[in-house]
Amino acid sequence: MMELLAQTGLNAVYAASYISLVAVGLVLIFGVMGVINFAHGELFMAGAYAVVALYADMHLPFFVAVPIGMVFVGVLGLVMERGLFRPLKGNPLGGLVASIGFLMILQSLAVMGFGVRMEHIPPVTQEVWRISDKVGLPVARIYVIVAAVVLLSALWYFLKRTRFGWALRASAQDPEAAALQGISITQTARIAMFIGAALAGVAGALTAPLVSVNPHMGHSVIVTAFIVIIVGGVGSLEGAIIASVVYAFVHTFVTTFSDGVLADIVGLMLMLVVLIVKPTGLFGSADRA
Amino acid sequence: MLLEMRKIAVNYGKINAIRDISIAVPEGKIVTIIGGNGAGKTTTLRAMSGMIPISAGEILFEGQRIDHLPAHKVVAHGIAHVPEGRRIFKDMTVEENLRTGAFLRRDKPEIERDLEQVYDRFPRLRERRVQRAQTMSGGEQQMLAIGRALMSKPRLLLMDEPSMGLAPVIVEEIARIIEEINAQGLSVVLVEQNAELALELAHHAYVLETGNTAMEGPAHELRGNEHVRAAYLGL
Fold first, then answer.
1. Which domains does chain B have, with CATH numbers?
2. Fewer CB near the last or first residue (10 Å), C or N of chain B?
3. Interchain pair A176, B83: CB under 8 A
């Protein structure tokens, strides 16, 4: 029993890692640009397809494919900023609708380029890191965990210790006051969009060999990310990370000990309970929501 | 003249917020803009710093046109704006707020020196360096907003209602700070609801009424003016 608990715990850490990469990106974009990016799940999907194209089809090394995929999705984020969110500045609802349209375009492009069938991606490594006979974690999952820790730490450092990081946070809190400090809101929007999209992209790229890659895979990802940012408090990066961990543990344990459908229901219940008890989310404050 | 506004008009949709306003700010002086609610004081100031587009007229700073520039580019010319309601970054620490004020500067050693100067000027900010700005009192937040503006090393400081919502002793302290900053050579444009305070501090004053300049002159003269005394000083 202890072994099963330990194993499930490790699996939950893996799930928390890629969920938090996606959710943090979503929160960052919302914070700085004020729009909800519905296409965020499809950015995840685009990262996964970058690995399909570069690693599975073109046989580039996996660790070359992943960074290329990450930058590629970051650039998609820049395209969204320029093409959708900047022209719709000051119109959050318009931005949301445009991002839904963009989601459909990305899905259609994936179908046109790769077909609707599930992609087969050769495993990057079959190795398993063993703690005991029955408890272990595939190394491919450890890559995801390490990447999440490294990237989120780097993001934290960037936001807290660099002048562009301060500029980003200042723009998220008060765009007009930020402009009065000489900060170009367009520039911070671009940076936020690139980072947010790239984080979703790298999560998709790293998990591609571990999940079923198909044009509609973004759907469950965005639903999970929404639950997580609502539980964590919309606008709070720390909240998004902590809520990712909470959600991943709850979801993984319920899936393991009961089943996946029930786990989804429990996840949504978690969100409802948080909304009833603390409508601003665990780490949200009223003036940010 | 350090700054000159010539025949400025600003429209919000079909409404003229200000119609025909000309203001001149001489180097090293404090110029105040007073007037009632909706007279166009804040709008005038926001036009100066590029926060709202003007629909007529021109604005010159050190002889250069700045009226077509967005706010974040006006700062680079040396104009810092302490906005109405302070607008500090509440979730950031005091020091992060101040450093954000120096966003455009690259002269690192001088930024550190100026930061020390701001801390010397406002010892309470030094005490609260690592505290989130939200946790501070209104007076401290106003000091932070002024300190943040000073960090951009401006030639001209625009202040919108610095006394708003503050206790009388804090207002006096803010007034002393404005005089001190000005004595060190920084020019100031002060928009104030508190006309008594403004006319006491300023060298020159403009009285706005419904988007037009109703009167202008040396501050001490306006203090003696019948109309100003009746309408704005409550005497």
1. 1-78+155-171+191-235 (3.40.50.300), 90-154 (no CATH)
2. C
3. yes
ipTM of the complex: 0.94
Q: What is the CA angle A46-A173-B172, rounded to 5?
A: 170
Q: Which two tokens stand for residue A208?
A: 């591609």
| Structure-block tokens of residue A30 | 């919302």
CATH number, span A2-116+136-277: 1.10.3470
**Closest partner CB to A170 (pick from B49, B80, B89):** B89
Interatomic CA distance for residues A29 and A121, integer angstroms: 30
pLDDT digits (tens, 9 = 90+) for A136-172: 999 999 999 999 999 999 999 999 999 999 999 999 9
| Residue numbers in A near B42 (CB within 8 A) | none
| Chain B hits for A173, Cβ within 8 Å | 89-92
Q: Return d(Cα B227, Cα B235) in angstroms, integer.
A: 10
pLDDT (tens digit, 9 = 90+) per residue, A196-230? 999 999 999 999 999 999 999 999 999 999 999 99
Name the residue among A163, A184, A287 with its Cβ closest to that of B72: A184
Name residue A3's amino acid: E
Annotated domain spans of chain A: 2-116+136-277
Window 104-143 of B, Cβ < 8 Å to A: 104
Q: Global pTM?
A: 0.92
User: Exposed/middle/buried for A105, CB within 10 Å: 0-12, 13-18, 19+?
Assistant: exposed
Phi and psi, residue B213, nearest 5°: -80, 115
Distance (Å, whole) CA B8 – CA B19: 7
Does the distance separating the beta carbons of B103 and A181 come in below 8 Å?
A: yes
Q: What whole-number distance in Å separates Cα of residue B45 and Cα of residue B158? A: 7
Considering only the beta carbons, identify the residue of A170, A173, A182 that sits closest to B75: A182
- Give the pair of three-digit tokens for residue B80: 């810092």
